[in-house]
Amino acid sequence: MTATGRPDDPDESAEPDERAAGAVSVSSALTPDAGAAALLDALDALRARLGALRLPLETPGVHHARTDLARATDQLDDYLLPRLRAERAPLLVVVGGSTGAGKSTLVNSLLGEQATAPGVLRPTTRAPVLVHHPLDARWFTGDRVLPGLARTSVHGTPPDGGRDDDRGPAAGPRALRLVASSNLPQGLALLDAPDVDSVEEANRDLAAQLLGAADLWLFVTTAARYADAVPWELLTTAAARRAQVALVLDRVDPGTEEVAADLRRLMTEHGLAEAALFVVPEAGPGGETVLSDGLLPEHAVGELATWLTGLGGDPDSRARVIAATRDGVVDDLVRRANELATTADVQHAADTRLRDVVERHHADALTQVEAATSDGALLRGEVLARWQDFIGTGEFFRSLEARAGKVRDAVGRVLRGRVKEAPQVEQAIAHGLESVILDAAEQAAERTHAAWRDDAAGAALLDGLELSRTAPGLRREVAAAIRAWQGDVLELVREQGESRRGTARALSFGVNALGVSLMVVVFASTAGLTGLEVGIAGGTAVVAQKLLEAVFGDDAVRRLAAQAKERLAARVDAVLRGQSARYTAQLDALGTDDVRGDRLRDAARDVADAARRERATRSRADDGLTRPWSGGMLRGAGTFRPPTSPEGIPGLPGTLAGREVTVQDADGAGSPEEPKVPFWRRWRRKDQG
């Protein structure tokens, strides 16, 4: 152990990788894969940085950044961290879409039972329903999947003890309702999410959160709603982060199949060209009503059921879909983090800018007070009259220019102890000094308030606060500071009397008299006066200085005046800083002074590096054909046989229920679109080389 109690440092000659090899992290206990464990550690560090990030100031682009921050933390909390910590959890397919698109009916039709209740009233406020195979229940009853949502079960007692004996929700909309169904393949779960375009903001937010937690999006729309803007905003986001997406075009009337072709065009334009598209007809081949006991017929959902069953039932296919979505989320998270780091820098710059405004105007106020107490301006009016009365030379000072020789007489009278009314001089000085300080503080408050008001970041902080004027108790605070300074001056005089000429001689002239004289010397520059006032102020200073020099000597007087002036500046500075703190306290409470984009940027870089290493070492087994699924089968699975290529590769799912989509070439002639290899088959295809 070292002297600090830390373990001995490893041999400096050892390689970094060798030293790191002995470290054991919490993540390494959750997964045996070293690459995944390192990625988990990096993501945990990034999550801590994002959790500490605050964006409270109204800076350019901050509203979008706040949404991005919430999305990034949701990505980590709801999907990425739980998925990495439970890599073998079932494939989670989130069924989302527009209001009235038929999501619940579709889920029930795939299951062959009423697992989730379709909404009758809009907006639908029911809780999201997650359907899983009975043997997968333990994956979802804990907090490893969607940890932020409470759980309630169809066959159990809800957490709040409410009624829970039917298919309707017993808990609030933020609770995840679990339904077990043997019709699902083991390893596959379907989540019926709220409407993405609900008029209820809470529903929309929850829908977006659930879609962000999906391994695979199954997005349901209709022939009447497929071009709506809100769903495409989410789909574009999914494409940007390379999420695995499939679309279902529901309620397609016979003869309107061209809608699917137009939807495919939109998918291509929005970066989803390789996403699967499934078509569910509004009516059967003979025009009969599709729904029977609330379920679509098997032929209507057969293609989708076959696809999902084959995908969910094969462990390798599941793993590849999960890995593809996970990789996309990681890359998107790194992008978001870097953008948020830039926003954090902007926030810090705004914080610095607002603090500089406060500092500058209150520094100007201190300079203003120092100037007013150095240019002789205080030695006029009431202060001058009281000083003249104090040393008995009022008539003399009024004719100073003609009778300058009487200065010696005035000093002599003071030295012989003919002083009177020192407290009145102190009071006059206090009143004059108080006015100077209050005026400077008031101007600083007005200028600071105006500067903040003209800055978007500062204007939002002023709302509801009385910061355009000084604090109501400032006058009392200033008066107390001046009394304290006058006490400082008297203490300096006492200390000097004890050290130089002895207490007796100093006290023989009166500590108050010497203290008042020192105050006059401090204020005795004549830079701000003209005419007769120059002579008056100059004569005043001469009398005070001669008195002090007679007691303490020339050098001591200069030193005492400098010390008294320094202490006055310190007292005034403390008062003004108290006023400026009313502004900076608003920033301190927000914590923006500690916002640093570089820390977040470093954490994002660590995630990118860890992800690159994990992908480079990831096992990519290729054993040929997809293996048979395990567990149950969705209703209608196997009733649809997609056309195959000469190599036996199935065509793209959703090509108008097995028919090829006709697209227009440059000269307007129709030509069949070449069948594409679907993403899950493309991964499983053998290398033909």
Provide structural commentary:
With 689 residues, the protein is an alpha/beta fold. 54% of the residues lie in helices and 8% in strands. It has 23 helices and 10 strands. The protein has helices spanning 16-21, 26-30, 34-52, 62-85, 103-111, 137-141, 201-212, 229-240, 258-269, 298-313, 315-372, 381-391, 394-398, 407-415, 422-453, 456-462, 474-499, 503-509, 511-522, 532-552, 554-590, 597-616, 679-684; strands at residues 91-97, 129-132, 150-153, 175-180, 188-192, 216-222, 244-252, 276-281, 662-664, 670-672. The protein has an 8-stranded mixed sheet with strand order 3-4-2-5-1-6-7-8, with helices on both faces. Strands 9-10 form a two-stranded antiparallel ribbon. Helix 15 (422-453) packs parallel to helix 19 (511-522) and helix 20 packs across helix 21 (554-590). It is elongated and about 120 Å long. The protein starts with 15 loop residues before the first helix and ends in a 5-residue tail after the last helix. Residues 1-24, 120-125, 155-171, 394-408, 410-420, 526-538, 622-626 and 643-689 have low confidence and may be disordered.
